[in-house]
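Exercise 3.2. Students should predict the tertiary structure of the chain below and write it as structure tokens, then compare their answer with the key that follows.

Predict this chain's 3D structure.
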Amino acid sequence: MLRCPKCGSTDLYQVLGGYAGTRYRCKRCGYTGSFVVESDEELPPLSEEDGAGAEKSGSVYRWIKIIGFLLLVFIALNYLVGILRRMLTVMGA
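Answer key:
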């Protein structure tokens, strides 16, 4: 039996195979990777608190990525505005 290493769910499906190697995706938490837990014995299901914690940490990580992206866009725009100002100053002088 294959289980997700992140949330423990058995609801996995194969994304890639063959020459590229086998990769799996978990329907419950969205984990994608080639590392899965394989065992012959039935493992106890995770409690609802564990699943909610995994979702919460995933959403926090997603927000950190969004804030980082917005910060990079702000810095790039600030840099471009500075270049445009210098160009206009040189052209106007």
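Discussion points: Strands lie at 2-3, 12-16, 23-26, 32-33, 37-38. The first strand starts at residue 2 and ends at 3.
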